[in-house]
């Protein structure tokens, strides 16, 4: 009888010439591979996955990737370095191949959250042969539409509360975010969406999640500083391109698609994701999380984990 071997490690891996960190956890290295692509861009999630999605480790080899320039993988992008969405798609492709070779598997399961869902959809479109199933969580479809809905939500909530000063500032903002002060505008609108409970369910801030990072044994103070720098840098380099993302013309995939959507997501509109889902003609399924906004995988973790585990026995 073969001995069951588990794994619990954080490793540095060279991906396309850049050292990047991955966490690998499982009770059994023979379990199917599950790769998780965090949001942002640059918004690493390792402590959150370890806290809320630990149940997955009994059924999968769970790999959490700290993407190029983010969190533990932070470095200052070079002036001549090509940093674009495809850079991260190719990094994810390379990492998938590394993992499949190492664990002697033919395919893996893929989860993409928010920004990670952009990488995820592009990845399965281009390299579908490597994946069993794709799970989009807080799925990005048409970024301009989603940002308009976020902006409208901020306007509506401040009108309801007669916050004239904030309304005045909001009305000066172009939510295409291509003006001179686009980053400040983006951060201001995002702050309003968060404050009015459109990002984290029934919460007016992200303190619940921040505390996970502050108390994590796997995230040092240095890592926290790097995460902050990496998030700012990634937004600066990638947001303008992210605003052009639009998957609406792609209606068929070679991989089964699952969307996990928070009913009250106004950070990246669940309504836009639902409209797109209804137009997909290939194998698909959508799950709604009634007590979630943009983070169903952590706000309703038990339900999320059960669905992902259910993929392995066909009970999804």
UniProtKB/TrEMBL annotation:
Gene3D superfamilies with a match to the protein in the record: alpha/beta hydrolase (3.40.50.1820)
SUPFAM superfamilies reported for this sequence: alpha/beta-Hydrolases (SSF53474)
UniProt keyword annotations, A-Z: Hydrolase
Record-linked InterPro entries: AB_hydrolase_fold, Hydrolase_4, Peptidase_S33
Listed Pfam families: Hydrolase_4
The keyword DNA-binding belongs to this UniProt entry's keyword annotation: no
Annotated TM spans: none
GO BP: proteolysis
Name by which UniProt lists this protein: Alpha/beta hydrolase
Source taxon at top rank: Bacteria
Domain Serine aminopeptidase S33 as annotated: residue spans: 33-294
GO molecular function: peptidase activity
């Amino acid at each position: 009888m073969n001995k069951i071997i588990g794994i619990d490690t954080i490793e540095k891996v060279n991906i396309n010439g850049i050292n990047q960190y991955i966490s690998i956890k499982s009770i059994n290295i023979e379990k199917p591979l599950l790769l998780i692509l965090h949001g942002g861009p640059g918004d690493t999630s390792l402590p959150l996955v370890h806290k809320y999605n630990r149940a997955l480790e009994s059924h999968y080899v769970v790999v959490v990737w700290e993407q190029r320039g983010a969190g533990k993988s932070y470095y200052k992008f070079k002036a001549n370095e090509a940093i674009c969405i495809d850079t991260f798609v190719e990094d994810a492709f390379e990492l998938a191949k590394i993992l499949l070779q190492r664990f002697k598997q033919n395919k893996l399961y893929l989860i993409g959250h928010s920004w990670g869902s952009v990488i995820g959809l592009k990845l399965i479109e281009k390299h579908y042969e490597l994946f069993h199933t794709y799970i989009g969580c807080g799925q990005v479809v048409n970024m301009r539409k989603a940002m308009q809905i976020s902006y409208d939500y901020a306007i509506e909530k401040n009108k309801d509360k007669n916050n004239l000063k904030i309304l005045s500032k909001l009305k000066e903002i172009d939510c295409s975010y291509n003006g001179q002060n686009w980053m400040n505008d983006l951060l201001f609108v995002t702050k309003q969406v968060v404050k009015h409970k459109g990002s984290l369910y029934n919460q007016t801030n992200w303190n619940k999640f921040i505390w996970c990072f502050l108390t994590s044994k796997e995230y040092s103070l240095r890592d926290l500083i790097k995460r902050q720098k990496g998030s700012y840098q990634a937004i600066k380099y990638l947001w303008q391109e992210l605003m052009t993302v639009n998957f609406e013309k792609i209606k068929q995939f070679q991989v089964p698609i699952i969307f996990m959507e928070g009913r009250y997501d106004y950070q990246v509109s669940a309504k836009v994701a639902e409209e797109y889902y209804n137009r997909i003609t290939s194998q698909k399924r959508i799950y709604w999380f009634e007590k979630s906004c943009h983070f169903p995988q952590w706000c309703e973790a038990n339900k999320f984990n059960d669905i992902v585990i259910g993929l392995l026995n066909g009970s999804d």
